[in-house]
């Protein structure tokens, strides 16, 4: 079938992380809908709920020990069309910015680690904070924590980038991120307190990820290394090792056509400073390409 081929093609490309994340969420949602419909027609009461519970994140540590995979799988589960639509729209809009500026690998790192950060704060709150610890058992599911990490990361990297919102007009994404965080804080005493806490965990991670990245620390390296390992495992291709001979130390700057070229990292720092001052739109095409090429290394 052409649909199956399209899906296979989407996952075979190495530069397609955003679409792959969107597809995974959509496929899981569709599979769950099919399971729900089939089990309902077959009279299998409770089967759908049991499957959702199996992959949702529980606050109870005993339940978590029986299904440790849920610290990540919860971030790919959705219940209800509005739930998944809002999450995937935000993932697409803000994920496109992160992908364009930082590349596919850092986008995936943000999603995975943002989900883990949301899970960590949720578990800490429901096991240490009296207001939650003494309440009813809770479970959380949905990509909101991971998506919030991407939203806040994009706003931290490109605070003055503007989206045109329906009925509102142009709004800088830093204000969108602030509103999302405030809404999450306002909801920590409501019926979806666990979800709102996961959003806050994701937001804290997204902000920290970009700030540390700008200082030269990439928190996503373990995720990228794990992805490379699995990629090599399933591709069946041998891993290549590059060796080189030592060369005499070169000067920090090199001449080219009569001019002096700064080291590449200095150029990237200048571009990032320009983004923080004037926004991504102020970059030239050449500067955007340099930033993207650097993100792939």
TrEMBL record:
It is found in: Membrane. One of its GO terms (molecular function) is serine-type endopeptidase activity. SUPFAM superfamilies: Rhomboid-like. Pfam families: DUF6576 (PF20216), Rhomboid (PF01694). Residues 264-297 form the DUF6576 domain. GO terms for cellular component: membrane. Residues 67-213 form the Peptidase S54 rhomboid domain. Signal peptide: none annotated. Residues 243-262 are annotated as: Disordered. The chain crosses the membrane at residues 21-48, 68-95, 107-129, 141-161, 173-191, 197-213. Keywords: Hydrolase, Membrane, Transmembrane, Transmembrane helix. It is a multi-pass membrane protein. It comes from the Bacteria. Belongs to the peptidase S54 family. This is Rhomboid family protein. It comes from Hymenobacter roseosalivarius DSM 11622.
């Amino acid at each position: 079938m052409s649909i199956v081929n399209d899906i296979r093609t989407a996952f075979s490309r190495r530069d397609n992380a955003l679409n792959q994340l969107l597809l995974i969420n959509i496929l899981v949602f569709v599979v769950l809908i099919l399971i729900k419909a089939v089990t309902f027609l077959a009279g299998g009461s409770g089967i759908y709920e049991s499957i959702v519970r199996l992959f949702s994140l529980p606050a109870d540590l005993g339940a978590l020990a029986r299904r440790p995979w849920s610290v990540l799988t919860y971030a790919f589960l959705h219940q209800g069309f509005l739930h998944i639509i809002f999450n995937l729209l935000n993932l697409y809009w803000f994920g496109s910015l992160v992908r364009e500026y930082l590349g596919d690998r850092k986008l995936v790192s943000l999603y995975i680690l943002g989900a883990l950060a949301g899970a960590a704060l949720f578990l800490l709150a429901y096991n240490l904070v009296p207001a939650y610890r003494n309440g009813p058992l809770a479970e959380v599911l949905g990509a909101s924590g991971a998506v919030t990490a991407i939203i806040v990361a994009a706003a931290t990297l490109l605070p003055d980038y503007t989206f045109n919102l329906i009925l509102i007009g142009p709004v800088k994404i830093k204000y969108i991120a602030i509103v999302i965080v405030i809404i999450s804080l306002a909801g920590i005493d409501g019926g979806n307190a666990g979800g709102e806490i996961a959003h806050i965990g994701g937001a804290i991670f997204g902000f920290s990820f970009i700030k540390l990245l700008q200082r030269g620390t990439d928190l996503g390296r373990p995720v990228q290394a794990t992805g490379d390992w699995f990629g090599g495992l399933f591709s069946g291709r041998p891993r290549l090792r590059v060796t080189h001979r030592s060369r005499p130390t070169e000067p920090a700057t090199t001449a080219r056509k009569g001019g002096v070229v700064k080291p590449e990292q200095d150029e990237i720092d200048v571009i990032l400073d320009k983004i923080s001052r004037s926004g991504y739109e102020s970059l030239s095409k050449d500067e955007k390409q340099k930033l993207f090429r650097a993100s792939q290394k």
